[in-house]
Design brief:
- This protein is mainly alpha-helical.
- It has helices at 3-26, 32-44, 58-81, 86-92, 96-108, 114-135, 140-163, 168-177, 180-191, 193-201, 205-230, 235-238, 245-256, 263-281, 286-289, 294-304, 329-332.
- The longest helix is centred in the middle third of the chain and has 26 residues, at 205-230.
- The two termini are 24 Å apart.
Length: 336
């Protein structure tokens, strides 16, 4: 990877990490479900008129939109609004790698290698340490909502693997159109029209800036740049940069929000990130990797030559997990 491309990958990871701090700021101005709905609305319009017709079947666009946009992001925003710290959220969401591998095994028959199973166990130990730390300092209910969000993200990753979009940005923009109305309906039902109207009426520059950052920075720029990198490099070269997301998330939360980082939280970070790395890059069962087709071999050759790789352009989320059909069940299974 060229130095300029590596810097771009680091920049995307930084944007996705800082995005959790920006979400925290935005939640001071919007109810969580309304904020999530507006995020997707601003990300989709006017971009949907610029990316052309959808290049994936509508069933996959709708499925990913509901699992990723409504369920995952709805739970993340509600969980953070309920007291889950931004830095810890950026870390705990990485457990999506384990959920993705689990759902890929159950639904797609992908069998992780032994080192991958060890990685999952280490990552789960990290979650346990993080839960103990949060149990002494914050609401466990909000922590559970983020775990549920990670599970929904794993579902969306598997759906995206089945969709195998050739154009990550086109796919993500069209996916962003799906959650808007369901999230608005949930907001009106659960948060109330008066609260929503009050938030919109009181919209100020910090609130508008937070909304634009999560929509255009984390979504449009983040997905677009990450997809651009994945179309020029093998996924195994690009995906490791996603492990920087919780590093930027926790450090920016400590710097800008004053969130304390306890020794237990550092241990949780080491276990979780290390476990995700093992689970993601440990490979699949040898028996699952035999018998590559000529198309697979051609794809790998194309990736090594710098040309687009089939299935390497799957979308990712600000929490860093790729959602394309690459051969890394942990990370490859979509958006932050």
């Amino acid at each position: 990877m060229r130095p300029s491309h590596a810097l771009l990958a680091v920049l995307v990871a930084a944007v996705w990490g800082v995005n959790f701090v920006v979400i925290e700021i935005g939640l001071d101005h919007f109810p969580p479900l309304l904020f999530s709905a507006l995020r997707f609305l601003v990300a989709a319009v006017p971009a949907v008129f610029l990316v052309g017709r959808p290049k994936a079947a509508w069933k996959w666009i709708a499925g990913v939109g509901l699992a990723l946009g409504v369920a995952k992001f709805g739970l993340v925003f509600v969980g953070m609004d309920a007291g889950m710290p931004a830095g810890l959220t950026s870390l705990v969401l990485q457990i999506q790698a384990v959920f993705t591998a689990l759902f890929a095994f159950l639904l797609l028959g992908e069998r992780p290698a032994r080192v991958g199973l060890v990685g999952m166990a280490v990552a789960l130990a990290g979650i346990g340490v993080a839960a103990v730390d949060e149990g002494t300092s914050g609401p466990l209910g909000a922590f559970a909502l983020i775990i549920a969000a990670a599970a929904c993200w794993g579902v969306s990753n598997v759906l995206t693997r089945r969709a195998a979009p050739d154009d990550a940005l086109n796919f993500m923009i069209w996916v962003s159109t799906v959650p808007v109305l369901p999230l608005l309906a949930l907001s009106l039902l659960l948060e109330g029209p008066s609260r929503d109207l009050e938030a919109l009426d009181a919209l100020d520059l910090p609130g508008a800036g937070a909304l634009l950052f999560v929509a255009w920075g984390a979504t449009v720029f983040g997905f677009g740049a990450w997809g651009w990198l994945l179309r020029r490099h093998p996924a195994s070269t690009v995906a490791p940069f996603s492990l920087l997301v919780p590093v930027f998330g926790m450090s920016s939360a400590a710097l800008f929000l004053g969130e304390p980082v306890s020794p237990l939280r550092w241990w949780a970070a080491v276990l979780l990130v290390g476990g995700v790395a093992l689970a993601s890059f440990g490979g699949r069962d040898r028996r699952a990797g035999r018998g590559k087709s000529s198309a697979d071999e051609a794809d790998e050759a194309a990736g090594n030559a710098g040309r687009p790789v089939h299935g390497a352009g799957g979308p990712v989320d600000e929490a860093g997990g790729t959602a394309g059909p690459g051969r890394m069940p942990g990370l490859a299974g979509k958006a932050n």
